[in-house]
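Record PilZ domain-containing protein, 97 aa.
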Amino acid sequence: MDRRISPRVEWHGPVRYRTGADEAFGIGFLSDISTTGAMLWLPDDLPINAALEVVMKSKYDPAPVHMHMTITRRTEEERHSYHGYGCRLETHEPWEG
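=>
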């Protein structure tokens, strides 16, 4: 049974992410996204409730999309040393910094 309230779109592609305005961006991968959240695969070992700024390119808009997300869950298994994170979408604005 799917508990999602908004449809999920599979979207396999790279994203840039960081955990703070003063942090450098890392590279991760997006596997799916909806209007309320996303599934990210990141090389960093991050805790539940960690805040992320995620930047992705859309095939529909040439400008990068900035999103704030909060990690709500983590997968048990890793994929090629990447951790899977279920994230809640918070806002669409870049962090200042």
